[in-house]
Amino acid sequence: MALVHIVPYAQRLGSSPLSAAALVSVVGVGSVSGRLVLGGAADRLAPVNAFRLSMAILLLSYVLWLLAPGYAVLACFALALGVGYGGWVALSPSVMAELFGPAGLGGSVGALYTSAGIGALLGPPFAGFIVDATGGYLPAIVTAIGMATVSVALAALLPGGRDAATRER
What pTM did the predictor assign? Predict the structure, then answer.
């Protein structure tokens, strides 16, 4: 949702079209950073814990979006969104292997990423509907925060984590 709506949202806050579009690049920089940093952190924290961290960063990013009074905080939102998303992408296969084993991992990861793609297909138009129906982004952002909160809570229920990391050492 955010990748589609961050540019028009920034323009509503008064950003130029070029500055608003640059936020998409900030998300990309964050994504690369998240893949490298959180992917590497999985060795020390355990994949499930690093995955939980990436989900928490995503939640934090949406809270930043909600509170963003201007471009600087919106850029922090874009960076945090990218870091959390990059971590999610990098860590999902490791988490699935830890939880379900390596058998059938390719198909499982394919199904996971396909379901994320369906969310990416449906989320932006749904958010746009909310924006059009309410006249503002606040309800759409609050909806994203609610969904991210549920995701963090569900990730907290995953088995594995610190005990698994300690056993491996």
Answer: 0.89
Q: Which residues are within 8 A (CB) of 154 and not within 5 positions of it... i.e. 6 or more apart?
A: none
Domain containing residue 85: CATH number: 1.20.1250.20
Integer Cα distance of 88 and 34 in angstroms: 8
* Closest to 99 (Cα-Cα) out of 56, 47, 140: 47
CB burial of 122-133 (b: ≥16 within 10 Å; e: otherwise) equals: ebbeebeebbee
Provide the number of structural domains found in the chain. 1
The token pair at 93 is 């296969």
Quote the pLDDT of residue 160: 80
At 82, list the tokens: 């990218």
Q: Which tokens in the block code for residue 103?
A: 């058998």
State both tokens at 67: 């509170």
Measured at the CA of 82, the angle between CA 51 and CA 165, to 5 degrees, comes to 20
Q: Which two tokens stand for residue 70?
A: 């201007």
CA distances from 12 to 18, 32, 74, 126 (A): 13, 28, 12, 19
The SS3 call for residue 6 is helix
Q: Average pLDDT of the chain? A: 92
Domain holding 129, by residue range, is 2-168
